[in-house]
């Protein structure tokens, strides 16, 4: 019972404007399905009070006066709940405004844009999620934030984090983060999301951080409480950057890595107080336990229960509702860390161990409730065993039923009798049961999911028996057939880290974030000594990180390549202008945060693949190349930065692995002709050792790689010849003409008539005819390349 | 008439209730003061046409406040005290006009009734004519309130004065309890004890040993405060309390609440200190204001009592792996049995634990025990 000074709060009220808070009451994910199928997650009870009430209580503790609750799914239920709650009574000191956003709000980023367009916030505000449980003095953080803003207008955000140690039940394993902060100013310098699967092994820090800040802390032991003190411009930044989806992964990362914004984000490491988010079923369990073991004091069931219940706290953290309505049989055993709601009846020989039982429940004789969470009005029959599961409200579990580890049972399910569920089973009722709830448009998405479950019911359920009167649907088990996006936090394996009762030991024997802090200390103390342990999460700065990219960025890479290809295909097919295509690529690059080289590589690959292979003859082939390169070649230089040497190198690399390998010479010539590369570039590239494929592993690809280089050698020889020719014969000609009249093009077009390309087509066709003839002659060689034939061409011309 | 839920004072009551619930106001004296200020507002704004209505209003407000924070006993105590004073004022206001109550003759048959003298009188008065104080006047329903209110405000002011001067009154006899060259042991940071020791330091030259009082470590604050006031002070860890006890002349403790049986709730560690003192037959003296007198018994736990705080102070949240495996109990108060206490020094004289019940009888009316 620390003496809490009231003065700061009053000061806030007196000389400053109203303190506003925004609650994002939607989870934007489906981790609680099927419990969240019929009601929004923020209304799920934890320790017998809706999550939203815990959040509001946390805010009230901080002296927040105006709260906007942004709701999306089941918005009407949230609105109703707020209206009914004690918060809408006069004298609550808080004004709560529910805001319904459109169904198109799919991410916190969209919600922020909505906040901006509605112009809700007028000053610095507190941004929290609708599933927060906290007793942190947020007003203190707000005061610090405002003070900082006075001296530094660019400090736009303060993130509240809680120190937790390397391994902690409340620390999300599936979704945590590394923060790099300046020890002195507690400015957040870098943010790196960490996922459980694919396990994040390496975090990269920009080198500048170490150069600019004498002392940095790299921390992997912080719980991100998702309490952000934001300035007014934060929503507008979301508006400006329409691709920001997640507040951490996109916004924080974006702001910190942006060279243009020049904004800074600070961290506030909570020393006193508790804050955590119920972001998945695993944290639901750990936060329930934290509340019961009083970490959230004074926000504990017997003291300031947000649901307004009165509990009596007995030895061993047993909480029994105080109004005398609880009936406990003489022979029942109530273990420690247990909460039993009002009007609940517990029959003979029941064992309740570390569990939470809601209001009006009935537990039948001889049942065992072990580490489970049972919502209101549920009836558990005799001799059941419920282990580490969550059971929704108004359920009926009939006698002799076994509900194992990690099962989630949705509202209103009837189960049993004599059924044994396998672990991690998820059950809900059929949709018709939901019919009494008003069918609104907003349930569309939920319905579609449920529909899918219903349709595939036979297949999912198999011959599994749920009891004779059961109305339950079994939700799909195991990983989905096609994992749409392995990089996403919501992928199946990563979800397992968030699942109640799943230790995910088969994914991973040692724990992602569990590496002890010593390891991190060594790597931050001594940058050169950093251990590169495959299993552990070591922090490497760019200075010491090996230059090859670890395996997982490859996936981002592939994904990005695919995106580029798609967008280019679209551009090709729909005939976009080069400029538009370039803009699209630039955005894509920003969004995926990849280097320019990758974009160039992708563009070149796409252009090369765009060239149709023509069987009918080299003339047509050349024509095709010229037209594609002429139309799209300019794109290579428009994507932001010109590096012709690299272009050639990438072209070589791509052609070496592609079926269009024989076209290398011609494409290079076409590029040359369109001024995308010039002679010097080709020479420079040609001189690079890498271009010869010297350090490559032997194999067919390297063969073709070398072949490409040879082709280019011929071309350079041509240049040389041409030059000497020009030197001797055409000395009078201007330099412009020299460059625009390379030997390679000489075959295709008459010199100095680039600007009249169309008119000169006849001339262009004329010379290749010879080369094709020559190719025909040379068929005995195993794979005659057109460039070789060009070389022959040249010779023949001479 | 049921008390009006939309009465003008409702908002202040609600604000205080939520502050109590959220522990934004803690400490027995602070809560007592805040309660009193709210009650004063209630009395001045409330509308009532007879005495029962007024009592009902105050009781309802008191009930809401107590329910908001049942662990701050001084809230309830203050409400009881106010009710008691109001009744007293009402009686003096009415007695002048009523026929003098027949002096009850002492008889063993009436002994039990005499234990509750006031109640008897109150009920006796009810049926009588109240002269100038007209209750339930149909012409002017406010006349009763108007004539009674100034007296009531005075009564409330008396309670307020008592609260405000409680430290001075407790410590006015300090020099009689502490003698020169004595060694005093104390723990925690009780404002009453602090004032008591500082006052004694004006006349006596003595030494104080302050235990750190884990896990709140309030003893450090106390030691700082005392030594800056010129008292020779030692700060010792809690573990050495027993070892040092043989040299200590007197243990002086603060209290959170004094219970009806003469025991008390006091800061964690008091139980150890008192037991150690008993082992050495060292006297244990408790300094507390009378507003801490609580007509309750300890029905909760045998030793640790009442209020269990955040395990953070004991274990530390960052000890992630332990958090899962260890159940930590961090009681804020200890229950100290009456046998371990030698005397209470209050603002109204010194009392042994065995006479606390009598003090309670005098301070509060029996009908208010349950608010």
TrEMBL record, chain A:
GO MF, any single term: translation initiation factor binding
| Alphabetically ordered keywords of this record | Cytoplasm, Transferase
User: Compositional bias of type Acidic residues: which residue ranges?
Assistant: 516-530, 721-737, 752-762, 788-798
Top-level taxon of origin: Eukaryota
> PROSITE patterns annotated for this entry?
W2
GO cellular component, alphabetical, reads:
cytosol; eukaryotic translation initiation factor 2B complex
Among its keywords, does the record have Protease? no
Please classify the protein's predominant subcellular localization into one broad category: cytoplasm
Q: Kindly give the InterPro entries that the UniProt entry links to this protein.
A: ARM-type_fold (IPR016024), eIF-2B_epsilon_N (IPR035543), eIF2B_epsilon (IPR051956), LbH_EIF2B3/5 (IPR056764), NTP_transferase_dom (IPR005835), Nucleotide-diphossugar_trans (IPR029044), W2_domain (IPR003307), W2_eIF2B_epsilon (IPR044123)
Signal peptide interval: none
Q: List localization entries.
A: Cytoplasm, Cytosol
Q: Which residues form the W2 domain?
A: 554-729
List the residue ranges of the region (Disordered): 463-485, 503-534, 540-559, 719-798
**How does this protein assemble?**
Component of the translation initiation factor 2B (eIF2B) complex which is a heterodecamer of two sets of five different subunits: alpha, beta, gamma, delta and epsilon. Subunits alpha, beta and delta comprise a regulatory subcomplex and subunits epsilon and gamma comprise a catalytic subcomplex. Within the complex, the hexameric regulatory complex resides at the center, with the two heterodimeric catalytic subcomplexes bound on opposite sides.
Similarity comment text for this entry: Belongs to the eIF-2B gamma/epsilon subunits family.
Q: What is this protein called?
A: Translation initiation factor eIF2B subunit epsilon
TrEMBL record, chain B:
> What GO CC terms are in its UniProt record?
cytosol; eukaryotic translation initiation factor 2B complex
- GO molecular function term, any single one: transferase activity
Matches recorded under Pfam families: IF-2B (PF01008)
> Keyword set for this entry?
Cytoplasm, Initiation factor, Protein biosynthesis, Transferase
- Where does the record say this protein resides? Cytoplasm, Cytosol
Q: Quick one: where is this thing mainly located? A: cytoplasm
PANTHER family recorded for this chain? TRANSLATION INITIATION FACTOR EIF-2B SUBUNIT BETA
- Subunit structure comment from the entry: Component of the translation initiation factor 2B (eIF2B) complex which is a heterodecamer of two sets of five different subunits: alpha, beta, gamma, delta and epsilon. Subunits alpha, beta and delta comprise a regulatory subcomplex and subunits epsilon and gamma comprise a catalytic subcomplex. Within the complex, the hexameric regulatory complex resides at the center, with the two heterodimeric catalytic subcomplexes bound on opposite sides.
**What family is this?**
Belongs to the eIF-2B alpha/beta/delta subunits family.
Descriptive protein name: Translation initiation factor eIF2B subunit beta
What species was this sequence derived from? Macrolepiota fuliginosa MF-IS2
